[in-house]
Write a structure and sequence with these properties.
Blueprint (H helix, E strand, L loop, with lengths): L8 H6 L3 H4 L5 H9 L6 E5 L7 H6 L3 E6 L2 H8 L9 E3 L11 E6 L10 H14 E12 L10 E9 L2 E10 L4 E10 L2 E10 L3 H10 L2 E7 L13 E8 L1
Parallel strand pairs: 1-2, 1-4, 2-3, 4-5
Antiparallel strand pairs: 5-11, 6-7, 7-8, 8-9, 10-11
Length: 244
């Protein structure tokens, strides 16, 4: 198995159970994204995964394509009705070559943070800017890290407990690198199952600077896909950047 930093690593660990363990109602995101391209145009999803957003978006008539680091994830998308018709390139979303221009690119569910260094996250913004048409949009959805969760830069939590199993989560926080290393562990009759993850979180202001470095500017920011206003109390955000 590969390790942290390899685009295929996440899929190797999670593809077989991703949709089941991480349920997501894609409808709000699909409605928001479709509204940004009312007259059509090519759309690119970075980290298209199992197609949870791309498949229903394509059903709306949107010409969506994808980049995905894991062939296993793409295989799950291909098995879904309509998923086999969505073009997808397997590679690193920070630098894989795709042919533009695109009217819209988007990256949802915190997946920008799967790029484990600031440098690679900047590379991703620049890669997107290269394939957007002038005035094209880049939409990202990210959580805002709650540093109060950690005690001495650590967190241990029980996530589920039953008669014959327990799900626990262990986290280590590096405040210098802005990284959180996770180990999600299940103990049950089959033994021990490990689900590792490394995320590099960003503050909204840092993302805005990355966008500026790539030749984009912040156009809108919301708390959620329903366009709830973003405030100091928000724990996540949906940000829309525009290529200059």
């Amino acid at each position: 198995m590969s390790g942290f930093g390899d685009p295929a690593f996440f899929g190797e660990c999670y593809a077989h159970e991703y949709d089941e363990r991480h349920p997501l109602d894609p409808a709000p995101a699909v409605e928001f994204l479709a509204g940004l391209v009312p007259d059509g145009g090519r759309v690119l999803e970075l980290a298209i995964g199992t197609g949870r957003v791309a498949v229903p978006l394509a059903r709306r008539g949107v010409a969506v394509e994808g980049i995905e680091g894991s062939a296993a994830m793409v295989g799950r998308m291909r098995a879904k009705p309509g998923g086999e018709a969505i073009p997808a390139v397997v590679g690193d979303m920070a630098d894989v070559e795709v042919t533009g221009p695109f009217r819209l690119a988007y990256l949802v569910y915190n997946t920008l943070f799967n790029l484990t260094s600031q440098e690679r996250q900047i590379d991703c913004f620049r890669n997107v800017a290269k394939i957007l048409e002038p005035g094209g949009l880049f939409v990202i959805e990210c959580f805002i890290q709650d540093l109060t969760e950690f005690d001495r830069h650590q967190l241990v939590a029980t996530r589920a407990l039953a008669e014959n199993s327990v799900d626990m989560e262990f986290q280590l926080h590096d405040p210098v690198g802005q990284t959180v290393t996770y180990q999600r562990v299940t103990f049950d009759a089959r033994g021990t199952t490990l689900r590792p993850l490394l995320l590099r979180y960003c503050w909204p202001s840092e993302l805005d600077l990355m966008a500026r470095l790539a030749g984009m500017r912040l156009r809108e920011r919301y708390d959620d896909w329903d366009r709830t206003p973003f405030t100091a109390a928000s724990r996540r955000h949906v940000s829309v950047y525009e290529r200059l």
